Amino acid sequence: MLWMSATDLGRRHGTPLEGSADDWWAGIEAVHQFLAGHAAEWWVAEAPDDETLLGYARSIERGGLFELTELFVRPGSQSQGLGRQLIERTFPAARGEVRSIIATTDVRATARYYAAGTTARFPYFTLTGTPRADAAGGGVTVEAIETDPAALSVVTDIERAVLGSVARH
């Protein structure tokens, strides 16, 4: 269902995804395993007649930061109120000291996020390319982080530095 939603968005934006769902999953599986293991809320929507998965949404909460990490609705079931219901359950308005959604530029989804009481703070760009060892340049290093508590603490500190002032406005 996630692959269907992502490829549908790519087609509508003129940026179709290449490869297969299996190829894509191989590169993103670890992220989704982490999110599944740390979910604050995780809701699914099924068709009442045959239990077909129509959509899902998930959020995480760490140190006062409450983030909607995913919201996907199957093409053909979009723009019918399902996304609103999933957000209400997964990202309730009264929860979180700092609330964050790292979102798509899809107009329909963005409208749904605004209706949920969010405000755009940063533009969203997609960068693609093959990483190179010297890509950072200028003495900056790029390092992969693990999911251990020390690494997550660094990420939380960065998020607080970036998003902390947003919460006070």
Protein model, in words:
This protein is an alpha+beta fold. It has a single domain (2-129), classed as 3-Layer(aba) Sandwich (Aminopeptidase), CATH 3.40.630. Helices cover 38% and strands 18% of the residues. The protein has five helices and four strands; from the N terminus they run ααβββαβαα. The chain has helices spanning 2-12, 21-37, 82-90, 107-115, 149-167; strands at 39-46, 53-62, 65-73, 98-101. The protein has a four-stranded mixed sheet with strand order 1-2-3-4, sandwiched between helices.
In brief:
This protein is an alpha+beta fold and 169 residues long. The chain has helices at 2-12, 21-37, 82-90, 107-115, 149-167; strands at 39-46, 53-62, 65-73, 98-101. The chain has a 4-stranded mixed sheet with strand order 1-2-3-4, with helices on both faces.
Structure characteristics:
169 residues; alpha+beta; Aminopeptidase; 4-stranded mixed beta sheet; globular
Going by CATH, the architecture would be: 3-Layer(aba) Sandwich
Give the SSE string. Answer: HHEEEHEHH
Range of helix content: 25-40%
Query: Mind summarizing the main beta sheet?
Result: 4 strands, mixed
Q: Work out the count of structural domains.
A: 1
Mind telling me the CATH class? Answer: Alpha Beta
Question: What's the tally of helices?
Answer: 5
Please count the beta strands (DSSP E, at least 2 residues each).
Answer: 4
Structural class: alpha+beta
**How are the strands ordered across the major sheet?**
1-2-3-4
